[in-house]
Amino acid sequence: MPTRELYIPAVALLALACATAAQAQSAYGIGRVATPAEIAGWNIDIDRDGNNLPPGSGSVSHGRQVFDQQCASCHGPKGEGGLGDKLVGGQGTLATPKPVRTVGSYWPYAPTLFDYIRRAMPQNAPQSLSNDDVYAVSAYILNLNGLLSAETTLDAKTLSAIKMPNRSMFVGDPRPDVKNPACMTGCQ
After folding, report:
1. Which domain holds residue 85?
2. Measuring CA to CA, which residue among 97, 113, 95 is closest to residue 58?
3. pTM recorded for the entire structure
4. Angle, alpha carbons 130-135-140 (nearest 5°)
5. What is the distance between the alpha carbons of residues 136 and 69, in angstroms, rounded to a whole number?
6. Is the Cα dihedral 21, 26, 27, 28 positive or negative?
7. At what angle do helices 60-70 and 131-144 cross, to 10 degrees?
8. I need a labelling partner for 80 at 20 to 30 A (CA). Which of 2, 20, 73, 151 fits?
9. How many domains does the chain have?
10. pLDDT per residue rounded down to tens, the chain (188 residues)
């Protein structure tokens, strides 16, 4: 007797995939709605304007100490690169045949430096640095790139106010699918 294969209509699969956590819990007795504390633990993104930067502060001098302990083995003692990317230099090279993309030459927004360090560094222990340490390392890297004086202390306000040298060289995305007016305001 030939075997019949069971096909589940694509619409049924889509409907199943779109079920919310609350629906899944009530319909199948599994899962639960995340608590506000659980959501806050994952909601650590910082946008280019510095929205969602946490409390804290860090000085260039403290950043030098943290960098020496946590970063220099990969990025070099002065951010010149090694196993990890080069963080310093490259100013004036972006329009050349061999551009050097570093924090000081390429990155358009300073708050994204904090976001990246906090999420991904050090590579062997991401998210292990305190907010004060991340502000400090950010300050030190910006200082190495000549963007801050050695006496600077960064916090949410001062980091958001930094205008990076390459900021005006980035342009908006003209594709219509990335600027859907229905989702640009009041999105849930």
Report:
1. 58-165
2. 113
3. 0.75
4. 120
5. 13
6. positive
7. 100
8. 151
9. 1
10. 444 444 444 444 444 455 555 565 666 778 888 999 988 888 889 999 999 999 999 999 999 999 999 999 999 999 999 999 999 999 999 999 999 999 999 999 999 999 999 999 999 999 999 999 999 999 999 999 999 999 999 999 999 999 999 998 877 777 776 666 655 556 55
